[in-house]
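Sequence in, structure out.
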Amino acid sequence: MRNCFSVIIVLVLALVGACSFSAAQAAGAAKPADQHQASSAAGVKLPSEATVDSFMQQTFGYEAQISWKIASIKPAPVPGLGQVDVILASPQGQQLSRFYVTPDGEHAVVGDIIPFGAKPFDAAKKTLDKGITGPSRGPKDAPVTIVEFGDLQCPACKAAQPAIESLIAAEPNARFVFQNFPLEMHNWAAKGAAYADCVGQASNEAFWKFIAKTYETQADITAENADEKLTALANDAGVKGADIATCAATPVTKAHIDASLALGKAVNVTGTPTLFINGRTIGNVSQVPATTLKGLVDFAAKQGN
């Protein structure tokens, strides 16, 4: 029987779904000492870094092209389990892998912990309803709110935009909100998010033109020319690029981006693009048929707020 981690290898080698956390973002500010303190406070016995590394070696050591870095070891959202985040890397790229360790330390569970109950998506919906601050399209009192967490440097985000735009066109009564979620693995994504935030503050209409053109010219933007390119794109979108550049460098704008990142992490965003349809998470957006996306929005509308 195929091992669950073999499935992860296939996913890593394919890398068709999304741009994912870097090790630093997955770990956040947690340090080994902090993790042990959290473990003690939560009453969870966590595996050591040495144990996790040995486990990874035994599991993936046969494949020379696969490497890994432990991002974090911490108590899981589910009481009693330990959560381990590892960055798996291959010549094709890197991917966040997450697994859970049982209290006896003898078993690992691979997969997502998903919400359960009569209204499984309500918690995420409430968190998003309170926290979304990004530019929006559609009526504010719409029965369905679609939230995208995106990274302007992420190739998967660029690939997903036609599907997202088609969905917005097909659902004029839905509200669509864009939240910046720049990944540390991308060297100009944070700057792109800052420019986007400032463009959005200056003009909601200009914002959508700005991100569309940024995705269109994504391959031409580098860390070295990002200020020049993004300033020009802001001008082309209909706002004053020089003012946007000044705004993008301010601590206030950084605080806006940090808040958007925190919101994404609060609803378990692990990569971009991630959509939420009234709290329901949709990943691998470009791989989801248009009829399925529309069906999810229509279904959510029928369920009401």
